[in-house]
Specification:
about 625 residues; Pnp Oxidase, Chain A; UbiD C-terminal domain-like; nine-stranded antiparallel β-sheet; five-stranded mixed β-sheet; 17 helices; 32 strands; globular
Length: about 625
């Protein structure tokens, strides 16, 4: 199913009972974000802020549930699209010997051809209105979090072209608004648009760029999809919407954009210019990504529909709206991984706590020793899976969506020494825990049943642990998992007052952690938060090779339990030389203002600010945590 425009999607959301129109004035400066954060963390509806200080309505959380994501993609379930891709790919990849069997491919090939984007002459609906003078301040651009560097366009569909091949790339990169006609262009080191930028720089040419906002919501999804290089995002969009995307040429460059978009922002990046300091920005990791240097995007023209709606989103501590964009990718790309790379994979899940790249769960049909390790190494070498930090492989009988069962499985089936592997490689630019920019390590956990030739560890003994041990006195211990008969202990510490490795060795030597398989160390203030939030926090805060370690036996061998240092790192305690970011929370004034206006907004029963749960984790004022 395709939508004629964003307004058609909004009407569908409203018919489905998935949209609330907010008529009370709400400011795009922090207030929209605070309301959206409350709604997204409580299964709330899409929000259309009709009174925001500009002439354009603001749409947020439009894909913030499985149902709304399915509406955006025109399917009943997210697995429906995966099945369609699997059937198409299987048909195309089946060996063909006879002429008749080869002719049978023609309908599938014709279907693929029908997905390629079309090209419309003249102007599109996205160009109905041309601003006399381009002015981004006329749009309700959000300032999302208190220490953001400024307002950010958060759902831009950014179009670039390779200067020599002409191959198009469509990606999503946040854009900090610096003024009426300039923004930052936050394309990361590993992204295709950054590669295009490097080519324009090599050639000494200005780089044309066009940004689309709105239109069929499938464009937004496809801009986030981890497609292989040189695969056109609008071919995927055509497949998903079962209708080719109509493109129209920009007014000031040869870049083509969707004719039905709400806004088109045209301009260029000049590689000869100095980079500009962009950020901080409250990011999808739940931490600020700190200020860094990025190219400047100069705006030459802004066009829009007559009835344009400004689409936006916020990111932060999960879950947020982007959870469902990630879930769609998880389901849609699973058959491609199975068919082209790893046929033994049965399912893959990226849990909320892993913010997409930090934690991935995979279940396989295991038939030979070492297969789990083979899967790990293959996935770490596959596209954007190279950013994964913690990869857990299970057998076919495991429900990857049952977090309690996964935790018990790891405790019962995983030997904390023999069943873990470490690797080095690229990490996401937003990974603040790595000692080096964009380079870190990975942890693989083999939670499969062991076959002949593999070391077997079935921890079926009755769990026993002495939480009254005198060495634990004075430590802030969380026994929640231990009380559920899981051999996991969470300890809150102040590393400025004790050396963590010495402490762990002492606890081991004195028998204080006898019976425990995994000790997770966190900062004192984090020890009492929810287990799911500890998982999120620790996955963000570890570089596995540096932060996972063991006490040593008298013979110098690694001893159970594994220690995991999930604390925040600092120069004083860890000789960590990079800046460490603060956790995202809303400021008190905004929280109180939204509390006071809640009854006027028509959003239903009062929802307290999620930030109240996380203020204990904030080190100080500002985006940088000073330790």
């Amino acid at each position: 199913m395709s939508y004629l425009n964003l307004q058609a999607f909004i009407e569908d959301l409203e018919r489905s009972g998935e949209l609330i129109r907010v008529k009370e004035f709400v400011s795009p400066h922090l207030q929209v974000s605070e309301i959206a954060d409350r709604m997204s963390k409580n299964n709330g509806k899409a929000l259309l802020f009709e009174n925001n200080g500009t002439r354009f309505p603001l749409l947020i959380n439009s894909m913030g549930s499985e149902r709304r994501m399915c509406l955006a993609l025109g399917v009943q379930t997210l697995d429906d699209t995966a099945k369609q891709i699997e059937e198409l790919m299987a048909g195309l990849m089946t060996p063909r010997d006879s002429l008749l069997s080869k002719l049978a491919l023609l309908p599938a090939l014709a279907e693929v051809a029908a997905f390629m984007p079309g090209h419309r002459k003249g102007k599109g609906a996205c160009q109905e209105v041309v601003m006399d003078k381009p002015d981004l301040t006329q749009l309700p651009v959000l300032t999302c979090w208190p220490y953001d560097g400024g307002p950010f366009i958060t759902l831009p569909v950014v179009h670039t072209r390779h200067p020599e091949t002409g191959v198009r790339n469509v990606g999503m990169y946040r854009m900090q608004v610096f003024g009426p006609d300039s923004t930052g262009m936050h394309w990361h080191l590993h992204k295709n648009s950054a590669a295009h930028f490097r080519e324009y720089k090599r050639l000494g040419q200005k780089m044309p760029v066009a940004v689309a906002l709105g239109g069929d919501p499938v464009y937004t999804y496809c801009a986030t999809a981890p497609l292989p290089e040189n695969i056109d995002e609008y071919m995927l969009a055509g497949f998903l919407r079962k209708k080719k995307v109509e493109l129209v040429k920009c007014l000031t460059s040869d870049i083509e954009v969707p004719a039905d978009a709400d806004f088109i922002i045209e301009g260029y990046v000049d590689p000869a210019e100095d980079l500009i300091l962009e950020g901080p920005f409250g990011d999808h990791t739940g931490f600020y990504s700190l200020a860094d240097n990025y190219p400047v995007f100069h705006v030459t023209c802004i066009t829009h529909r007559k009835n344009a709606v400004y689409p936006t989103t916020i990111v932060g501590i999960p879950p947020q709206e982007d959870k469902w964009l990630g879930k769609a990718t998880e389901r849609i790309f699973l058959p491609l991984i199975k068919l082209s790379l790893l046929p033994e994979i049965l399912d893959m899940v990226m849990p909320d706590e892993g913010v997409f790249h930090n934690i991935v769960l995979v279940k396989i049909r295991k038939t030979y020793p070492g297969q789990a390790q083979k899967v790990m190494n293959s996935l770490w070498g596959a596209g954007q899976m190279m950013f994964n930090k913690i990869l857990i492989v299970t057998d076919a009988d495991i429900d990857l969506n049952d977090s309690a069962s996964i935790a018990r499985l790891i405790c019962e089936r995983v030997h904390p020494v023999d069943d873990v592997i470490f690797n080095r490689g690229p990490v996401d630019v937003l990974d603040h825990s790595s000692s080096r920019y964009a380079l870190g390590s990975k942890l693989g956990i083999d939670a499969t049943m062991k076959l002949a030739g593999e070391p077997e560890f079935i921890n079926s003994r009755e769990f026993s642990f002495n939480e009254k041990h005198p060495d634990l006195d004075g430590l802030v211990c969380n026994y929640m998992l231990a009380h559920e008969n899981l051999p996991v202990l969470i300890i809150g510490i102040n590393k400025l007052h004790s050396n963590l490795r010495d402490l762990h060795q002492q606890l081991h030597d004195n028998g204080a952690i006898l019976g425990i398989n995994w000790v997770i160390y966190v900062d004192q203030e984090a020890a009492a938060i929810r287990i799911s939030d500890i998982t999120w926090l620790v996955a963000n805060n570890i570089d596995p090779l540096r932060d996972c370690f063991y006490a040593r036996t008298a013979n110098g061998l690694p001893a159970i339990p594994m220690a995991i240092d999930g604390t925040g790192k600092s120069l004083a305690a860890d000789d960590f030389k990079r800046q460490w970011p603060n956790v995202l929370v809303m400021d008190d004034n905004t929280i109180q203002h939204v509390d006071a206006m809640w009854d006027k907004l028509g959003l239903g029963s009062f929802i307290p600010s999620p930030s109240l749960n996380y203020k204990v984790l904030v080190k100080n004022e500002g985006a940088v945590a000073r330790g």
